Fold these 4 entries.
Entry 1:
Amino acid sequence: MNYRIFITIISVFLAVFSFTAFQTVENEDPVIQTMIDEEVERRISEYRKVRLQKCRERILKVADLKADSIILALARDDFRMDTMPRPEVPERPERPEIKPPRDTTAVVPLLPVDSLE
């Protein structure tokens, strides 16, 4: 009999505890409710701002790495490939026409050859 009383007391205790544990008290004061709502909105907006900032930093980091690798790849390709082609070998010019001198007189030394010795 003691065992039955013990079981009923525990079951009544659990029933009362479960009913009181899940009861909610509604705040009927509108001023407190508006303060709570404002604080919740502030925290949500702050959380979103922090998350967006972290996301932006992560995206910029990845984009920076990709841009750097693209720039390095283009620089390597520029060294391998010359942008200006080699100039062609120029053609040999034509031989100039030899013009005879206008003065056909013989060349004579100004000083006698004997005086130089």
Entry 2:
Amino acid sequence: MEKSVTIDEGQRKSENGKILIKWSYTLREDDEKITYHQIYYDIDKSLSVLGEDENEKWIEINKLDLKDLSSISHFDYLHSFLKSLKHKDDLLEEFKEYLKKANIKFKEDSWQSFPSS
């Protein structure tokens, strides 16, 4: 069973209306794991730390590590939790903090792409 929902997406514009950055935060579920994924598209290269075009971060949670979480649907529970977080800019950090406090194991990783020229 595969599911995917968007937690947040949007873009930030400059005062003159130019798009500076776009982002998308998603939660996905497959048969073995639940993955929280953040991707940023740096349209204005002055905002990127290393000159990257894209910056992705994700957290993978093995479903077996959620067995102690009292919920009928772990995916729906985590989706509701993520939607309830107030600080969208720090959502990944808040989510990691929650998982640590709840003693839920997770794997964290990231990836960046750079222009070819």
Entry 3:
Amino acid sequence: MVEAGFNKGYVRMQVKGGMKNIEVKDILKKAAEPVVGEIKKFVSSKLKDLTGYQFILLVGGGALLCRELFKDWEDKYGLIVRDEFANARGMLKYMTWVKPTN
């Protein structure tokens, strides 16, 4: 249900004996706005000239949820937003090719 809310902008719930789609897109956006503001502030403080990078990659559990709020950075800086499994896939690739040292 949570994933459907993120992907589709609504959740399907039983209400008064029937199923109904409950819109959550605006609620999720409002909840994400302060977090995105903090991320932008932090990144801007650490990376003074964002245009100097070929790509900036945003990964994590909330990346897709926040994608719309990072649209300005996608256009301006080439920000790439990836899904919540990007870290896990990267670690799998790393562990597949790294040989144990013991």
Entry 4:
Amino acid sequence: MNATIYTADDIPVGGWFGQDYFNVNENETKKIRISLSNHSLAIGTYFISLSLGKGNFAEGMIDFDVVMNVAKFSIIGFDSATKVGFATWQKQWGNVLFNVACNIE
């Protein structure tokens, strides 16, 4: 399974290319659960598009099915566990919040 995440303005932010994990036979139904950890997406609304096929971008791919805008989700910018968050996020800052250590000597 491959996917691309887009901003609400339909700009690709990033994605992933999966392995050939499973087969789907005719008239068969499968449930797929996706978990994206440490995404670093900035506050905003996003869409995800998925494709099923075989191969990868380095060796070549064949998509059997592509579904655009499968799910809409929002990053709200507040961590209820730590009670820390951002009140606003400006578009000109981009769509990824990098986790960077900065030491000044």
